[in-house]
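Moderator note: this is an archived Q&A kept for reference. The question asked for a predicted structure of one protein chain; the sequence and the answer are reproduced below.
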Amino acid sequence: MSVDHTKTGRKEIAMENFLKGYNCTQSVLLAFEDLLPDENKKEIICMASGFGGGMGRLREVCGCVSGMFLVAGLLYGYDGPETGTKKAEFYAKIQELAHRFEKENGSIVCRELLGLAVKEEPPVPEKRTAEYYKKRPCKELIGMAAEILENFMIEMEHDA
């Protein structure tokens, strides 16, 4: 799939999506909405809904990292019962994206990024208020994830 690089501002789009109320994963995914198949767009966004809050507020893998992985799967993934080189090459891409995010932030784990001592939180998300946005680095992390992914995609096209 060829990527249209005339579409600019994916980082800003991702951050705006979060401010609209989308979760971290959906925010990143929707910044690459032009790459989603039209006939499955709604289903893909719904599938991403469980990954917010580090997987349903379990505070595990950061939702914006999961968002990068979902887009990468659409672009570079496989659709069969792969066991060999194709799977290894794709996993190498996933690991590279994770390493780039971790290099910038020290972790890919939601609770570590947020400085939380608890392993999981109640399933009810906090109300999105100005105070909520002020105390959370999520918007910036989402923007960074979109930027990391976009740069990675550009590199992949140049290497092809």
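Archived answer notes: Residues 73 and 90 are 8 Å apart (CA to CA).
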